């Protein structure tokens, strides 16, 4: 799936995809904070960019393969809390709710994700899904 570059970025920051998560997905930039990585990973789910998701997943927890659900239509991302994960941090956590439509039904996924710097780049380590 491609995403029109001039459209609003799915991550909800209010910028165009081309100015927000697009450069991360293309590999021309890396996310400067854990929150930006979280947002770019959400956008990767929206645009079905499994390669980006794999490349930003910490090697110790990354699955061998990743198949994205093409029938899941992501609607929104809401960041609830950010702990650390800044420019000078080595770890961070981001709590969020992502809303999608699956089989015509609205679903919300609530998670607290953990991130670590690996080789100077932020990577997704793991997350705890809330009820």
TrEMBL record:
Domain YchJ-like middle NTF2-like: 33-127
Protein origin, superkingdom: Bacteria
Cleaved signal peptide residues: none
InterPro entries reported for this sequence: NTF2-like_dom_sf (IPR032710), SEC_C_motif (IPR004027), YchJ-like (IPR023006), YchJ-like_M (IPR048469)
Pfam family, one: SEC-C
Similarity section: Belongs to the UPF0225 family.
Protein name as it appears in the record: UPF0225 protein ATL42_0596
Lineage: Bacteria, Bacillati, Actinomycetota, Actinomycetes, Micrococcales
